[in-house]
């Protein structure tokens, strides 16, 4: 062992060398033996005949000898360690000696090798002090050292002595001994040891940096005047959390009262202790946030600083201060990061009029957003709103347009009126809140409500803080009210902030809330005990406080925006809590959400079904963009203008030579009647082309529109510098069919499973097959129109009864609607029995893939049985679903992929 | 072929070929393995020589794959020939609640006597999510001891070289038509609570995929995560006669590179430290601005790298795209070489990197 570990070998040697002293110290008759020395503290004289003298001499404790011997400083210190001690270790009575007339001892704080530390009260002033009785021999030049400490700059976080006095104590043998006493003001707070071990520390992520700054700079100042602390253990750092601000103060400075240890050893011990304290602080944080590494939690800049501070190359406190102030290392890292990301991550191929970022970054999507006024009015009003619509219809963008994005220079709405707090639920933020087996319904409700309240508060503060930092929001005159609110919101001991040099006050609040949220999520893994009960009222109070605090938000009303809030992104128990928030009718905040059809359950956590029109309003984008007469629909020209504007905005934004899409696509396409004729004949010149065709096929979906136009541009090689010219119908047709076929084929990659005929099968595959069957059937109906004077296109399925579908068929129908393949919003007035019956219209984006027209002239009327056949066994439906299909099957092989053989 | 960042910081012991399986297993106090339907999945059980008091944990698949029950019965019979009956423990991997496997395995491991110090985990028959759960249960319940990860390669994998030739003839550089794979179509993206990580406020995501040959699963996870950045880690099988597999994987994933801001790198399918180092390199530059999500759809050893990376950075989320089932007919066949690697105890795993040790 000793060969492997030199440090242990040295320690073993020291113990062996001092074994005779240890033996002496442990003798039961110690006082009697020491009495033989007859030591006089005042004149430093001991009896030369004492049997202890040889032992003392061996250890260098004797300075001169003769009839009476004098002890060296080390000898005096050794003797004082044995003889100067409290009579009763548990009592401070008589411990102060002659100082007792001035101070009343209240308790012994510590009895150490070099000093005894006592808490005392000034008898006259009544104020609290800490008296440090320095053992004789522990200091070489106490007065000089105290003088040196006076050179420390003001504000240094070291508790300096305010006085140096002498007192006379009585040693264990009854002899007077004069002792120097340092008088320190009493430091309020808890020790660093207590701070580290305390439960529920809402340490914000920057606490280690705050510690390093405060304690490091204090020790650097000490180092600069040639001093050291000497005993920097966890009890000698006081943590003061008064005024909700974290302050670290070094106490009990032992400079020049370290007995036999050399100055260099003492300085190294300071550095080593300091590094260990930083380490412990980080270890405590790491343990408390099990779902995050320190790198992520404290951020790269501070991580690198800490890494350098803890490095063996850092050998002085001056270096530590330099590391904390010097940003060059981090700037070099940022440069390298920029280079690395630029070199390694490649931009995708040109999307022409689309930007890949808008699919992933709502802020970018909002920048390119063209709102439809009628729709925007309906969505932005202060009410709970469910925004629905086909995939790509712009649900997320409409919702995001209400959000406050700090970096955006302007917004679609005025944040002074509408302040949207945007949650992109698709990122998985809410998944950990899914109900667990062991939770009761009530536990789930309470836990999720608390977590949601914390998330909303945290997110709101984050965007406000970023808004203030970016200059979009004016800062608050005072954060006191907000701080007081948050202090009550978070579990005990409440908020603790680090100094403003490390973090602004607002960032302190944000960092604390981030930590509180992490704690709440981490707690879910353990058996739950509900310690707080937040609800909508908590949020109302919070938002009212925010209004009072930030001058730009005094009139605003808050809208909590949950984008993609359907399953599986938001578990149903979390949806229930969102519904609870919607039910809390109040004038301060409302809830808006987007979700795919039938994926959000409007049911509160206590089982109340929310009523559309009463508790919330549904705004179906595809429905609002439906062309129709009267109040229910949009005029054809309005929709055309809106879609033209969407394209125009992008042509302008990306500096295309022309901004009118008609200059590229033309609008002289063949009539729809002519197109139907050509499609029914399967002629090669049945071209989908021209602006009117394109925006109709886009089927009220901006993303479809942009994809179609972009693909046409790609096929024709049009970019921003191209002279405007109308792309040939052939090229347009090729591009349109490509997009349509891609859309159809991509259905098969939709994840999920459904049960069909008792077997679990791929949802994507079934959607693809069923859509193919529908499109192929419509295609065969069109082909059957060949030779007729006026051809009519089947584009919808109409129920000809109202009977309930069997479960598997119903599920498939729901999925076809959820994924926007069928539009299930329409009802058809049936003249035969005077009732309205459901109508399911095929999304027109698939029409080119099936070689069919895009206008709905006719409906395929199906009974319950036939519809079930289509939904459950589409392969059979295509052969005998209707008379026409049976006839077609008799003449040629009808299968699902019939559509592929169009021309 | 292997990217430079993958080559740096190689401070792990190498994955080694198991020259003698009995020699390695006789040093173990127990083995954890899954009753998979591939031949390679039971090599360590069949050829291993175990101590009389050694434990055997069998992971039983509870799903709708035909023949699972018979396969498990064969494993159980094999285990009974090698272990005392009371030392055989069965843990279920249920399709409807996969996360329970970790807690059940963890509870069993925690109940073992202190004399059980060295466990081997055979990942050959485990899907990646089960491998991650088995690793976590072991390392969090027996974290003070080293463990040994065991693996046996198959001889023939799907798709075959012939399929590859046909695909590139018909499809060219970007293969849209997917080869038939053992994993059927996507059911869902599984995010186990244990590995759900921490989503920070910025909500921008980088998705790292250990890309294999099941591009439909990659599609599923890309669709679920909708990442701002995509990092594709292609697997390099190492042997020159297998380089076509790397080429196939690239062609299968080319469509992602066209549609998103993407980086790609190549790491060994076997030497997991390459994947670990590559992830570390990208993490270092991304983590302040992005949340990192990793989807291990590549090799088993890349799954090991993914797990170890998560252990180091628990804010990282692991996503497992699950198929609706498996087609045993398309399973890898034959038995190739067996490998093992010793993993240091969790507490000292990253002892040279102070923050991870904390």
UniProtKB/TrEMBL annotation, chain A:
<feature type="domain" description="Protein kinase">
    <location>
        <begin position="103"/>
        <end position="457"/>
    </location>
</feature>
<protein>
    <recommendedName>
        <fullName>Protein kinase domain-containing protein</fullName>
    </recommendedName>
</protein>
<dbReference type="InterPro" id="IPR056955">
    <property type="entry name" value="ORC-CDC6-like"/>
</dbReference>
<dbReference type="InterPro" id="IPR000719">
    <property type="entry name" value="Prot_kinase_dom"/>
</dbReference>
<dbReference type="Pfam" id="PF24389">
    <property type="entry name" value="ORC-CDC6-like"/>
</dbReference>
<keyword id="KW-0175">Coiled coil</keyword>
<feature type="coiled-coil region">
    <location>
        <begin position="788"/>
        <end position="815"/>
    </location>
</feature>
<dbReference type="InterPro" id="IPR011009">
    <property type="entry name" value="Kinase-like_dom_sf"/>
</dbReference>
From TrEMBL, chain B:
<protein>
    <submittedName>
        <fullName>Uncharacterized protein</fullName>
    </submittedName>
</protein>
